[in-house]
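Project outcomes to date are best conveyed with an example. Our students and postdoctoral researchers have been running inverse folding experiments weekly, and each run begins with a structure described purely in tokens. The record below, which covers 169 residues, was selected by the lab manager from last quarter's runs and is presented without edits.
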């Protein structure tokens, strides 16, 4: 399901600020977690697939477009930590996608996954995005927004644990 809808409403904006796009995607991720937690069977599987696709695209876009800029704006310590969290999340996603979404094993691992993904997004919102907002002009952020959406469109729809977390992946 790689429609424009996957990447959020900012798509209709011709000059999307990278921060607006990323915050919109974080909101969609949070909403999908809530919906998955109250779904079962095919509906749950389909929502999980949507989350997996959105996260694969979102984290790829961040690694390609956001990190090289935020590394200068927020420092190596911050970007190394975020890249490591994304790498770990991809490993967990690879495990989760092999499980039955209605199994106790899935639910236990998914609850942990939700906590770490939401904490990861919160770190980005608290440290990385404010640094980029402070150090980049509106025009630069719009250029980044365009590049991010382009990178996300060509991102894999499944996580690749071995390549994740690397800005060159
Ligand atoms: Fe991220
Ligand atoms: Fe993010």
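After processing, the design step wrote out the following sequence:
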């Amino acid at each position: 399901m790689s429609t424009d809808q996957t990447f959020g409403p900012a798509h209709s904006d011709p000059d999307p600020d990278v921060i607006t796009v990323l915050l919109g995607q974080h909101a969609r991720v949070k909403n999908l977690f809530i919906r998955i937690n109250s779904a079962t069977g095919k509906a749950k599987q389909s929502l999980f697939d949507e989350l997996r696709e959105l996260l694969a695209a979102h984290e790829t876009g961040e690694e390609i477009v956001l990190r090289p800029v935020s590394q200068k704006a927020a420092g190596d310590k911050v970007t190394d930590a975020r890249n490591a969290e994304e790498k770990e999340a991809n490993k967990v996603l690879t495990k989760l996608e092999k499980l039955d979404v209605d199994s106790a094993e899935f639910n236990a691992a998914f609850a942990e996954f939700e906590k770490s993904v939401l904490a990861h997004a919160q770190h980005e919102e608290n440290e990385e995005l404010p640094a980029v907002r402070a150090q980049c002009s509106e025009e630069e952020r719009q250029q980044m927004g365009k590049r991010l959406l382009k990178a996300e469109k060509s991102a894999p729809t499944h996580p690749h644990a071995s390549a994740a977390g690397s800005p060159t992946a």
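The pocket of fe (ii) ion (ligand 1) is lined by residues 59, 62, 82, 86, 120, 124 (CB under 6 Å). Residues 41-74 form the longest helix (34 residues). The training component of this project remains on track.
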